[in-house]
Design brief:
The protein has 185 residues and is an alpha/beta fold. 27% of the residues lie in helices and 29% in strands. The protein has 5 helices and 9 strands. Strand 3, helix 2 and strand 4 form a beta-alpha-beta unit. The termini are far apart.
Amino acid sequence: MTGLRVIAGTARGRRLRAVPGEGTRPIGDRVKVALFDILGADIEGSRFLDLFAGTGGVGIEALSRGASSATFIDKASAAVQTVRENLSATGLGDRATVLQQDSFAYLEKNPPAAFDYVFVAPPQYHGLWLKALRALEAQPGWTSEDAWAIVQIDPHEDVAEGLSRLDRFDERSYGQTRLVFYRAR
């Protein structure tokens, strides 16, 4: 994979560090560009939640493009350290909260505030993306009225969700990466 970087906004062109080891799957530039082209100007002023944050590249991109805040959740200490280093390198740490915690334990709590975007990119082939969506459904307070949940999966992981409150309204595939978009009914 080519070097990770911020694509646009105030931190455009800044390089991001990768998490050491093989435990993360950073979003590629092509997919990140496509994602933020879809989100467009609506990202400005939004509250962004980056679950299974890894490098923090998606939440950092949101901050660079004008999100008012981003919260990064990852249980791996190496990932949390990498997110903090990337926030420092981009100068975006003042609008960020970084927590070393299991994403599901975090979603079981009472939400501190509603998020406008929730990005879910867990380790592949464990069904964790669907478990995360179900956790969001169980606590509607995590998402604002017109919020989107965006899931990054391998196309082979895609299954019928059986969700009661979140509707799939779009999906896009880029090679071995699929982005699936949900919003509340």
